[in-house]
What does this fold into?
Amino acid sequence: MGVRLMVVDEHRLLAEALASALKLRGHRVLAAAAPAAGAAELVISRAPEVCLLGTAAPAEPGVFDPVVRIKRERPQVAVLVLGPVPSPRGIAAAFAAGASGYVRHDERIEGVERAIMKARAGEAAVAPALLQGAFGELLNPAAQPDDEGQRLLQMLTPREVEVLVRVADGEDTRVIAAGMGIAPSTARTHVQRVLMKLGVGSRLEAAALAARTGLLDRAGASGG
It folds into this structure.
């Protein structure tokens, strides 16, 4: 009954949380995390029925190259792109590369599971709300959306940004404290401040919000 799945995302916390939720719903999850560069090789070697492939930047050139390679070498694998709210061009690029669907990082588990079942059945899997948003943007090209990732990044101090990146990597309070050379109590305070500023109630929600808005990529670019 369950589907043989892979969840492949650069952010280990997101990948493992989604994999765990899918396992609880009776699916067989083969792997949970991998860097973007190795995603195609991992999927090709394991050959699941459906792969959830994470991306933080669906509009970037070449971002769907792993999808192209997977479909070329394992055409029977249905690939669902897991990413932030995309532009119409992002959705089109995912399908052009051979993806079976597009699922938002913060989609409820029921929605993710519906997309998985559609993809396995050979159907296109895109939430109606995503399509409506895409068509709305196509019909209103002059309306520029707010850059939510940049806005959120400006709310955080450099130290809080580092804490958020570590949270997204799955580090607990003690590991964060050791990595930053601060006391665990201080690290805990930083985490609480990040959650408060982002308006979320948990570390997982913070990581999902950061991934959906591209905040983590912006943090990496500004820090490096």
